[in-house]
Amino acid sequence: MESSATSGRGTLAGSGARASRFVATTSRCGDGIADAGRGERCDDGNLANDDGCDARCGGCVDPATLSSTWAAVQANVFDRACTACHGDQPTAGLDLRAPGSYTAILDVAAAAGLYQVKRGDHAQSLVWLKMAKSSIGGLDDLPGGGMPFGFPLPRAIVEAFGAWIDAGAPMDGYVLGAEALLVPCDGAKSGASTEPSTPAN
Ligand code: HEC
């Protein structure tokens, strides 16, 4: 059993580690400062899981613990990159937190004749189009911004999400061609890069 993921919990809750005078070098999850350089996707100043930004500040989830491609979408896309805005406060009416996210998007009508996610068709899926607008580009006619703001997802992740949609957006099982969702620990931190990620060390 790996237990490393829980090691910081008790320590940080004491808030003795507040780093307001050392912002540039000692940022850690829970200090209220989202530090992309440390892989943080969000930081709401605490280590609670259900309030928009999770206890890992959107950090990487071990792919071995993900039981389906959909679970990988939730953990490695929505939880990391979206729920800070589409969670506790459902910006644009969209709540992408588990466990409601699947029914909140699947075949749910959205603006402009689109769906949030149109089963079997990524090109009619606003959630995909918003991500693609950021990461892939070429969607200038799509109203509003690309998602997420500020840190485009790696193209491989967005394409894998599209492959999952095209495969019928199944809740269970793994979708061939969506493997990138299951190995995002290096890639998802690197913003818009489309290069294959090189090992960190
Ligand atoms: C920093 C805040 C922020 C983050 C992070 C963010 N969004 Fe958004 N999102 C917004 C805002 C603001 C809007 C409304 C304006 C717009 O559409 O550009 C929006 C709108 C949307 C819409 C349109 C909903 C509708 O029905 O009009 C979708 C879909 C969406 N976001 C998906 C995502 C996804 C998927 C992610 C993660 C990959 C994400 N967003 C991350 C702020 C955010």
Describe this structure in words.
The structure is a single chain. This protein has a domain at 64-187. Mean pLDDT is 78; it is low at 1-15, 19-25 and 186-201. It has helices at residues 9-13, 23-26, 69-81, 101-105, 126-135, 155-166, 184-187. Helix 5 (126-135) packs antiparallel against helix 6. The chain is built from 7 helices and no strands. By secondary structure, it is mostly helical. It binds heme C (HEC). Heme C binds at residues 77, 81-82, 84-86, 91-92, 94, 110-111, 116, 126-127, 130-131, 144-145, 147-149.
Entry keywords:
0% strand, 7 helices, disordered N terminus, mainly alpha, 201 residues, binds heme C
